[in-house]
């Protein structure tokens, strides 16, 4: 089975990552050959720049708490490709992945013969729909891969709710150079008759686009009220907050997760047909965990892993690092060359004491030497290690027992070091 799984995975990874023409017409044809499994499922559809994964995980945890068989489709994965496809918190088995891969490959070969250029994301999204239908999921929390309107996930019927998380600048080559263009692409998941729940702290330009879209397609818009939120505790041990007078507990670290949580709460309160109790929602929020989201991997010194890789993510990262009492604070960073890394590192000026830069295992990775030159313009010391594991070991020595190590900059780096640290614990 392991060999069959690896062959299937290699086939998928050798497909084009993107297609020359955006749109859902390829997956539409692919799904027709597969019996349109998406038409037999209910979804919560989640788009945005930051917070999609955390919000999806909170919603999924609440549905599980309420006894619903719950699918979760996320992008990207951190350690194992199968993380993308989960039911009730468990990844798809290698055996089932291979079985469904064979079905999708047959449909893929048929549309290829028709001249349609199917990409990897089309393929795995179709596989996900088959997986969730085959296992009779009551609800699927469906995270958008990129954008919204042209994303393969947008082939679904009107969902139980469309959720728009924090929108900021990212993937401008695909989505557009203005925040309005980016917002318009992401608002493409809003559909007639389905409520739209919008993250509470959007810019006016973004909110205007979302309001216009909701009005056009006749979707009720729900905006969580930040002013009904009172933080009782927010530190490295977790968060306790009040929302509308009700107390909620969060394992996910950082004040930005409170806004993600109240977005999830309002989503779960305003579904079209599914109902949850307030206690089920609170219990689900309290049980939610998510890898590489200010994830504490060890103590003495404390080691924190975060997937921050765009400016808005770095704003949240800086605020979260400040809440830790450890000293000194040492960063480990590697980035992709198409990111706004100069702007991002400037946000950590005055937050870190020392930054160790390293290379990222990706063709898109920025050379560590170039990253070091950019980083040296800030008020923290900078050093370089060519390999992530070496960078981590250097950071541990610099931190000592009283300090903290914060790993960020790229999900490739997060995956690399998370695997390494998990092996160290064995």
UniProtKB/TrEMBL annotation:
<feature type="domain" description="Mur ligase C-terminal">
    <location>
        <begin position="293"/>
        <end position="410"/>
    </location>
</feature>
<feature type="domain" description="Mur ligase central">
    <location>
        <begin position="46"/>
        <end position="266"/>
    </location>
</feature>
<keyword id="KW-0067">ATP-binding</keyword>
<comment type="similarity">
    <text>Belongs to the folylpolyglutamate synthase family.</text>
</comment>
<keyword id="KW-0547">Nucleotide-binding</keyword>
<dbReference type="InterPro" id="IPR004101">
    <property type="entry name" value="Mur_ligase_C"/>
</dbReference>
<dbReference type="InterPro" id="IPR036565">
    <property type="entry name" value="Mur-like_cat_sf"/>
</dbReference>
<dbReference type="InterPro" id="IPR036615">
    <property type="entry name" value="Mur_ligase_C_dom_sf"/>
</dbReference>
<keyword id="KW-0436">Ligase</keyword>
<dbReference type="Pfam" id="PF02875">
    <property type="entry name" value="Mur_ligase_C"/>
</dbReference>
<dbReference type="InterPro" id="IPR001645">
    <property type="entry name" value="Folylpolyglutamate_synth"/>
</dbReference>
<protein>
    <recommendedName>
        <fullName>tetrahydrofolate synthase</fullName>
        <ecNumber>6.3.2.17</ecNumber>
    </recommendedName>
</protein>
<dbReference type="InterPro" id="IPR013221">
    <property type="entry name" value="Mur_ligase_cen"/>
</dbReference>
<keyword id="KW-0479">Metal-binding</keyword>
<keyword id="KW-0460">Magnesium</keyword>
<dbReference type="Pfam" id="PF08245">
    <property type="entry name" value="Mur_ligase_M"/>
</dbReference>
């Amino acid at each position: 089975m392991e060999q069959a799984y690896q062959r299937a995975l290699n086939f998928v990874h050798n497909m084009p990552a993107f297609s020359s023409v955006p749109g859902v017409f390829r997956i539409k044809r692919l799904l027709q050959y597969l019996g349109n499994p998406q038409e037999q499922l209910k979804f919560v559809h989640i788009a945005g720049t930051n917070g999609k994964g955390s919000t999806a995980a909170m919603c999924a945890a609440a549905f599980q708490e309420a006894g619903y068989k719950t699918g979760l489709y996320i992008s990207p994965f951190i350690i194992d490709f199968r993380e993308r496809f989960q039911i009730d918190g468990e990844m798809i088995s290698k055996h089932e992945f291979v079985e469904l891969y064979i079905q999708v490959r047959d449909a893929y070969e048929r549309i290829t013969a028709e001249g349609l250029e199917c990409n990897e994301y089309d393929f795995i999204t179709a596989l996900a729909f088959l997986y969730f239908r085959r296992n009779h999921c009551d609800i699927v929390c469906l995270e958008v891969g990129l954008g919204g309107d042209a994303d393969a996930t947008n082939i679904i019927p009107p969902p139980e709710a469309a959720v728009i998380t924090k929108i900021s600048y990212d993937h401008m080559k695909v989505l557009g150079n203005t925040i309005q263009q980016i917002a318009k692409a992401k608002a493409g998941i809003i559909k007639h008759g389905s409520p739209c729940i919008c993250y509470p702290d959007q810019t006016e330009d973004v909110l205007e686009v979302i309001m216009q879209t909701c009005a056009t397609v006749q979707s009720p818009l729900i905006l969580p009220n930040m002013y009904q939120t009172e933080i009782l505790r927010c530190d490295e041990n977790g968060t306790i907050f009040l929302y509308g007078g009700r107390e909620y507990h969060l394992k996910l670290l950082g004040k930005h997760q409170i806004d993600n949580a109240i977005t999830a709460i309002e989503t779960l309160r305003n579904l079209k047909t599914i109902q949850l109790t307030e206690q089920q929602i609170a219990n689900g929020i309290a049980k939610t965990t998510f890898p590489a989201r200010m994830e504490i991997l060890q103590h003495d010194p404390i080691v924190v892993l975060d997937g921050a890789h765009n400016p808005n993510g770095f704003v949240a990262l800086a605020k979260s690092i400040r809440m830790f009492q450890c000293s000194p604070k040492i960063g480990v960073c590697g980035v992709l060359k198409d990111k706004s890394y100069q702007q991002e590192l400037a946000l950590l000026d005055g937050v870190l004491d020392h930054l160790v830069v390293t290379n990222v295992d990706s063709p898109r990775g920025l050379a560590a030497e170039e990253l070091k030159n950019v980083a040296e313009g800030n008020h923290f010391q900078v050093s370089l290690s060519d390999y992530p594991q070496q960078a981590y070991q250097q950071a541990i020595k610099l931190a000592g027992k009283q300090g903290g190590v914060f790993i960020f900059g790229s999900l490739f780096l997060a995956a690399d070091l998370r695997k390494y640290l998990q092996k160290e614990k064995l």
